[in-house]
Amino acid sequence: MTSSQPVDVALIGGGIMSATLASLISQLEPTWKIEIFERLGDVAQESSNPWNNAGTGHSALCELNYMPRAKDGSVEPTKAVGINEQFQISRQYWSFLVEKGLITDPNTFINATPHMTFVRGEKDVDYLKRRYELLKEQPLFEGIEYSDDPKVINKWAPLLMQKRLKQDQPFAATWQPAGTDVDFGSLTHQLVDAATASGASLNLNTEVKSLKKQKDGTWLLKYKQRVGSTPGQLNARFVFVGAGGWALKLLQKSGIPEIKGYGVFPISGQFLRTDNPKIVEQHTTKVYSQAAVGAPPMSVPHFDARMVDGSPSLLFGPYAGFSPKFLKNGHIWDLVTQVRTHNLIPMLAVAKDNPDLIKYLLGELMASKSKRFESLKEFMPTAKQKDWYLITAGQRAQVMKKDADKGGVLQFGTEVISSADGSISGLLGASPGASTAVPIMLNILKRCFPAKSGEWEPKLREMIPTMGTTLNGDAVRVDEVLGETSEALNIGR
Predict the structure, then answer these.
(1) DSSP character for 231?
(2) What's the structural domain count of the chain?
(3) Is residue 297 part of a domain?
(4) What's the pTM value of the predicted model, to 2 decimals?
(5) Which residue spans adopt a coiled-coil conformation according to this UniProt entry (predicted)?
(6) Mean pLDDT per segment of 10 residues, for the chain of length 493 residues?
(7) What is the CATH number for 48?
(8) Residues 6+ apart with CB under 8 A from 9
């Protein structure tokens, strides 16, 4: 089907990012025409699917890579505080949707789950204690605890301590009861449902094949239905590309100069999972630790309690792997076909400067089943292979970009790419993307619709009261906001 009249917004990809932007625009501009395109048969089937990610509400409560130790041993909390600030923005928006009845049961997507960090060895124990001493003074981290006492750690997470032999190296942990487990697949479905109820259109099994800027400033999207191969096209005044790793391919097709120099490096992963109730009931936390030398930040080992569709499970991993596909349902030639003259040098520079990453990935690929299981036993000494099975996680696309000094760098996190005129924007990268989807989309709205900022501000402040402020600087306000959102979302403070 071909549309002759331009739509206001076209969203490519049916994950948490497009769903969040569709939801926000539906609230701000209920008369705008929104079209959502998803190449698979349902939304949230790639990185937003609950079994394709670890479901952590990333707020830096337990993730050490958001507060790394510098070469001189110092530790600085600014990034960790910033990540937490962003997650609170997301929580406020979700709370607003619950209060308005647009999401009916928050516990279908978010549940209180303590966050914990567990480390071993004198160097990491010293680092964790320094991290704790800094974070306990931050209002957003109120309630964090530290211990190197096995009895205390056993109380927090019994499976970590059962039959743990006395070791030559010390161990320690931090504990934060205010953490959450988030099912971003469920949340994505509910956000899309709310947007379509407000008039947005969802096009499933529909793959956008090309993007071309028109003389009138709109974008011509040509697409094809994967079932029946029916082609179609439409014009859109604004396009958002939230298609995971495929966002790079589509932004390259758009021809915008802002995408030059960018590439992505796909990393696949697997988790060990158990649904055995006798095991699951003993572990109700998310436990993160330090990544192996050379491992990408997204490969930080974690032992996670999950709640999906009302059923609890445990995940351990991830075990990194390699696939040239940008999506689980991508193409085998994705890695090769992204190469352009403008991103070849940055990509080669990344390969040259990251031998530890290559060594790590080769080691993971060659690891035997028993060796992989041994890494679980380092966390859970009583683990038995018969209770666990392997699942394949989603593809993560690490951003590669130009760098004036090195030629190219591998970047952790997310990156927004927008055209100079704001008519098209896309998102590259991975964690902590889903947890910070709301502030990322607010940034896109501000960047791409500057003329609307003043008009939208009152409504945005109704939805997100602390927008534009630094929450962590006011302990009283932190207590109020966390209390209000916890109550609305039916989770602990």
Answers:
(1) E
(2) 1
(3) yes
(4) 0.94
(5) none
(6) 79 96 97 97 92 81 90 90 96 97 94 95 93 97 96 95 76 95 95 96 96 97 88 96 92 96 88 96 94 64 91 90 86 91 91 81 77 89 94 87 91 90 92 88 97 96 94 95 96 73
(7) 3.50.50.60
(8) 21, 22, 25, 32, 33, 34, 35, 236, 237, 238, 239, 240
